[in-house]
Design brief:
The structure is a single chain. This protein has a domain at 160-240 and 414-450. Helix content is 58%, strand content 15%. The chain contains 15 helices and ten strands. The protein has helices at residues 27-40, 50-71, 88-93, 104-109, 120-130, 132-153, 237-240, 242-305, 311-346, 359-367, 376-386, 388-409, 456-523, 529-564, 576-584; strands at 116-118, 158-170, 178-192, 198-210, 216-230, 354-356, 414-425, 440-450, 569-570, 573-574. The strands form three sheets. The chain has a six-stranded antiparallel beta sheet, with helices on one face. β9 and β10 (573-574) form a beta hairpin. The protein is elongated and about 135 Å long.
């Protein structure tokens, strides 16, 4: 983990490179010479298949992601993969189109008629499994890890092996014509050095066999070594290994971005789900209000027929009944529209049959809208420590600072040590690549100097690096202020939602009392229709307001936890235990 300066996501500070390599030597590096040698022996079928290359890439990328998660202060996720669901859920909603085996989650959720009832937990799981947006983010993380393997590849031994075979005929076909066979092969590797420079080694042979006029053979075996080391420009691990260093840090940033996305995405899914619960409760409230209005209208009709009630009161009750019925219909339409949008959020077809489990609303009611015991200063301290995207913004400052030293190095003179050794033998002996009978040797030692006479481009790059560093600092400071603004706003929203719920709960109780009183007065013959209808209207309005206030509070609480960076999301959903532990953890102020 990086940087105890501000938050848990660092241990050595963002000025330091990744403490240990994210990329480990893969099987191709170990087996490289074996594969080349096998090819040279004439077995090209030993090359890897496309599927094997894919598996090798997955093994490397998933390993990098796992180690980067640890560096980013996150739990390892052995189940992380980018294999898409291949529309399995979409197919399972429509068995007449196809009949797949089905995912374990689907088998647990779906009924025989392919209706699915989802609660809060399963909604999050469905979204993670089938959401296009979620899949895009996983692939982005994977691609970042894959880019690291390319960056580090240059600092591994890059093996090569070639074999060229040819046949040649010359002459007019008479006795003076010649026929020859030629073979040329080479085996070797090149490698960039972590502190600058490069090293290469190659061995090979050239063989020509004349089959006619007269039969003879010429052969040459060679070996070549080359070493280049910079002393000034391009020297040092910080300069030469910068691409790998940045690629490693980019993977850690990508892990943080993915974790931040999961938290934002989860809150968005939960918010949509909560609004569905609110819409479903609104349907129940409007239906109950419609039933009350029907009873009132029927009572008024009977009283009117008996001559005990004016016609205007009868018609007013009928009109109120029609208005209540219309509100009920509108509530149902609003729910269906919200449900279709929610299906899209989950990556499901809109014509899928999805049912909402309203037990979650009961649990939310039981928990109520009690304020989190947290003051603004403590909330801000937690946010500055735990926000992953803020840690990345701070890391970008360190990246920009590192570029200053790298571009400054490019302004120096070039002073390189070069050494080569070429060995050639014209005698194979009994075996090929026999170099104990060296026919000729060519070696070279030297220094090359590149005076800094023209450094305009390098000068400009250095000046840009200085500017970019200051810009990165400003961006970090602005982002830090934005985080503080978000947390302060969330705290205010949470307090407001809690107070609104308390007020609306009291308003609901008053409205219920007024309806009961109006019914008693009307039954006693001393009430009037308007008072009863007004009381009924106040009741349904208060009931809807209570549900909205409760949902608003629940969403505001999640948004606060998200923006403080303490909301922990696991594959199974929100980890309430870990979230509460972070929330209650005492922090030291800056």
């Amino acid at each position: 983990m990086w940087g105890a300066k501000r938050r848990m996501n660092h241990t050595e500070g963002d000025d330091a490179p990744v403490p240990h390599p994210l990329v480990r030597v893969g099987r191709r590096r170990v087996a490289g010479a074996v594969l080349v040698a096998t090819f040279l022996l004439g077995f090209p079928t030993a090359c890897m298949t496309p599927d094997e290359y894919r598996d090798e890439a997955d093994e490397a990328a998933y390993g990098i992601v796992g180690r980067a998660r640890v560096l980013a202060g996150q739990k390892e996720d052995p189940d992380f993969h980018i294999d898409p669901a291949d529309n399995e859920l979409r197919k399972e909603f429509f068995p007449e189109r196809t009949a797949p085996e089905g995912t374990p989650l689907w088998k647990r959720l779906a009924s025989d008629d392919h209706r699915v009832t989802v609660n809060l937990e399963t909604a999050l799981q469905l979204a993670a499994l089938n959401s296009r947006e979620f899949q895009d983010q996983k692939e982005r993380l994977y691609n970042t890890a894959l880019s690291l393997t390319s960056a580090v590849r240059n600092f591994e031994s890059r093996w090569f092996g070639t074999v060229d075979l040819s046949a040649r005929s010359s002459g007019d076909g008479d006795d003076s014509s010649t026929v020859s066979l030629a073979e040329s092969s080479s085996l070797g590797f090149t490698r960039l050095l972590e502190r600058g420079g490069s090293f290469s080694l190659s061995i090979g042979d050239n063989l020509t066999r004349f089959l006619t006029n007269p039969a003879s053979t010429t052969a040459t075996t060679f070996a070549s070594l080359a070493l280049s080391l910079p002393f000034l420009r391009g020297a040092g691990r910080e300069v030469a290994y910068e691409n790998v260093t940045q690629a490693e840090r980019d993977v850690v940033y990508a892990v943080r971005d993915f974790e931040r996305f999961k938290r934002v995405f989860s809150v968005d899914v939960i918010s949509d789900y909560m609004r569905l619960l609110q819409s479903a409760q609104t349907i129940d409230n409007e239906k109950a209000n419609y039933e009350r209005r029907k009873v009132t209208a029927e009572e008024n009709r009977l009283l009117g027929e008996a001559g005990r009630l004016a016609r205007t009161d009868v018609e007013r009750a009928n009109q109120a009944e029609l208005a209540a019925e219309n509100r009920w219909i509108v509530a149902k339409e609003n729910f269906e529209n919200a449900l279709d949008r929610f299906k899209l959020r989950l990556g499901l077809p809109t014509d899928a049959i999805l049912l909402i489990d309203q037990e979650d609303l009961k649990r939310i009611r039981e928990r109520g809208a009690q304020l989190i015991e947290l003051d603004a200063r403590d909330a801000l301290v937690k946010a500055l420590k735990w926000r992953l995207d803020l840690a990345t913004a701070e890391g970008r400052v360190a990246d920009a600072k590192r570029q200053i030293a790298i571009t400054a190095n490019a302004l120096e003179a070039g002073l390189d040590f070069n050494a080569t050794l070429d060995l050639t033998s014209n005698d194979f002996g009994e075996t090929r690549f026999k170099l104990d009978a060296v026919g000729s040797t060519n070696d070279f030692l030297g220094l090359s100097i590149d005076l800094p006479l023209d450094r305009v481009d390098e000068r400009n790059a250095y000046r840009r690096a200085l500017i970019n560093f200051q810009a990165a600092r400003r961006d970090f400071e602005a982002f830090e202020d934005q985080v503080k603004l978000e947390v302060r706003r969330d705290l205010r929203n949470l307090r407001q939602a809690s107070e609104t719920f308390r007020i609306q709960k009291r308003a609901e109780e008053v409205a219920q009392t007024n309806v009961e009183a109006a019914n008693l007065l009307k039954a006693a013959g001393i009430g009037n229709t308007n008072d009863l209808l007004d009381a009924q209207n106040d009741l349904v309005t208060a009931q809807n307001a209570v549900t909205q206030a409760l949902i608003d509070y629940t969403i505001a609480r999640l948004q606060l936890l998200r923006d403080m960076g303490v909301l922990i999301v696991e594959p199974e959903g929100i980890d309430e235990t870990s979230t509460e532990a972070l929330l209650k953890q005492e922090e030291k102020s800056k």
